[in-house]
Amino acid sequence: MDLTELYQSVILDNNRRPRNFRKLPTANRSAAGNNPVCGDEVTVYIQVEDGRIADISFQGAGCAISQASTSVMTQRLKGKTVAEAEALFGRFKEIVTQGTPDEEDLDLSAFAGVHQFPARIKCATLGWHAALNALHGEAVTATTE
Amino acid sequence: MKLPASAPDWAALRADFPILHQLVHRQPLIYLDNGATTQKPRAVIDALVRYYERDNANVHRAIHELSYRATTAYEAARARAAQFINAASPEEIVFTRGTTEGINLVSYVFTPRLKRGDGILLTEMEHHSNLVPWQLLARRTGAQLLFVPVTGDDGLLDLARIDDLLGRNVRLFAFTHISNSLGTVNPVAELCARARRHGAVTVVDAAQSAGHLPLDVQALGCDFLAFSGHKMAGPTGIGVLFGRHELLDALEPFQGGGEMIASVQFEQSTWNKVPHKFEAGTPDIAGAVGLHAAMDYLDGIGRPAIAAHDEELARETFARLGGIPGIRLFGPPGERGGLVSFALAGAHAHDVVTFADQQGIALRGGHHCNQPLLRKLGVPATTRASFYLYNTPEEVDRLIEVIRQAAGFFGR
User: CB–CB of B358 and A63 under 8 A?
Assistant: First the structure.
């Protein structure tokens, strides 16, 4: 396969210039994600207001897939309820495991190439697991290894 | 040992390795992950097949013909291993699953000999397999772990600190011959001599050196030395622990079971002689036979020639990677083992490895079981190219080209 199928421009761009990459002083939820074997790390900060994600940010270090996926996630989750966030993660998991793009969601669909690299699915889902742990108030560090 | 009449024909040797002749992602395979495991020549594969097709039986216990053949082959491999590293006798060779098990064996049997306040000296460049077993020993005994510092990206040990550290009641000094993440070649003989002056027992991790350099345990002056068959053209699942005879003789066994006993009663047993005392259960007989074939294969080429070949490819790679903007190189610029580790600004090691894999090049990216060292150097992961006798200058050309492309593809 062509490398640009895995590393689509959305991914390369979000890896070079991660969005919402900062600590969030107003956060009332946060959770870490860590894949110790491969070394990917993220911390997701969320400000929840009236059951909605009012603001969200992250910090981290790791491969392009893990960092870009978390960056894209922060853009897509802003304003969502917890239930909507869970549903979106369900769709994202389908995209990265089945390779079925969602034509209405081009940013998430940029990760469809990941399904051809089974070892990298855990990179793509790390930030999402951390975000859902934060929303559910679970203090554990997420891991997808 | 058969000495080569002239310089080996390196390109022709590639024909001995069936696995090399394939396409990966529609590109000719370039295998540069030899630090993790090496490929196997036809001679080793054939030895395994021949053993299983003709001679397979359990060793040492039965009287029938096949058992005699299996036992003879297994003990011939032990004698060959003794010769390979110039041990004083085959009794100083314990077969293990690999380097990791050899180090675990030593760390386990030293438990009754250490007490609170004793020191175990390691270096900051140890593979987890030469770190974690000693952490466990320290936890069991109350002994204290001490570390010889690594000076920086050049990956050298701070030799000026060693006598001071050894003076802190150090009973054991365990260190690697060649660093798997930096390529540093440590001065084993000098380190062993200094340890001996302080009465410390030495344990050498030779995982990265045994298949490349000539080893002479008597000249090195080490007490223990461990290596793995699969990193030197042999099969997985077999390794060697060398131990000086008087030490092996005095130490208690590692695991209990068949093979390691002299006499067994319900309440107690007496131990077999060394090295059998340390080989409980049915060993990896086929693995030993395959390792024997690997040692013959390597010495047919000549280890000094292999070492020079691998180092030359590594030096060339080190020098040419240095010309890529944003690259950070690890390990000494001078003498080095046959591997190069680097980090590219803006490109994580796993992305570089995936990028290279798509071009048919097998590299390794990550912490290389060296987490504390990488943390100290402030780098989360590095990419490593590690060479062996079948790698070529043309493969280095291709590697440099692909790493340049990766730097452009991911770079900021």
Answer: no
Does B408 contact A at CB distance below 8 Å? no
How do the domains of chain A map onto residue ranges? 3-135
Among the partner-chain residues A16, A65, A120, the one whose CB lies closest to the CB of B412 is A16
Domains of chain B, first to last:
10-38+302-410 (3.90.1150.10), 46-299 (3.40.640.10)
Distance CA B173, CA B186 (A): 13
**Which architecture does CATH list for A3-135?**
Alpha-Beta Complex (3.90)
A9 touches chain B (CB under 8 A): no
- B11 pLDDT band, cuts 50/70/90, is confident
Q: Comparing C-alpha atoms, which of B7, B85, B321, B293 is closest to residue B183? A: B321
Give the range among A3-17, B183-197, B272-286 with minimum mean pLDDT: A3-17
Provide the ipTM.
0.89
Bigger pLDDT: B390 vs B377: B390
pLDDT, average across residues B106-127: 97
Average pLDDT (B269-284) is 93
Whether B375 and chain A come into contact, CB under 8 Å, resolves to no
Kindly name the residue from B369, B372, B379, B392 that is annotated as catalytic. Answer: B369
Q: What is the rounded distance in angstroms from the CA atom of residue B382 to the CA atom of residue B183?
A: 13
**Per-residue pLDDT tens for B386-402?**
999 999 999 999 999 99
Q: Provide the phi-psi class of B178: left if phi over 0, else alpha when psi is between -120 and 50, else beta.
A: beta
Q: CA-CA distance, A81 to A49, in Å (whole number)?
A: 10
